[in-house]
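chain below, 165 aa
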Amino acid sequence: MTKEEKYMKEAIRQAKKAEALGEVPIGCVIVYEDKIIGRGYNRRTVDKNVLAHAEIIAIRKACRKMGDWRLEGCTMYVTLEPCPMCAGAIVQARIPKVVMGCMNPKAGCAGSVLDLLHEPGFNHQVETETGLCGEECSQMIKGFFKALRLDKSRKAGYTMADGTL
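prediction:
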């Protein structure tokens, strides 16, 4: 296992913590000089806070550890492509590199819907890499939403003629 895979596996472990709470399973770690300095997982529903995304939590912890709002020299590993808010925070924190497990075609802002990490008008652009442990990250998200839809269907009493959903 490469160092990069090790860090993404830790982001996946963080995502599983979110899933255990009934949250969308997104996890993130921030690495500086081969040490994890920030970890986070999605906690929006539990914390009742729209800002409680994995990336924002990890950035907050990493900034505390670094003693600065700038996270130059760091690499972020995140299981899902960042949303607009998180992409903006990444740019603002001056994180030079983000490694994403899988893309988010409905809300991603690192190339899917928008590409805020490579916006030439900003004073900072981010190197990106996608697909590290991609299948595992993608299946985790798909499995979560499939189970959520199944649960909602059961609660609503929707079934097909043969008893399946």
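Residues 134-156 form the longest helix (23 residues). The longest strand covers residues 35-41.
thats it, cya
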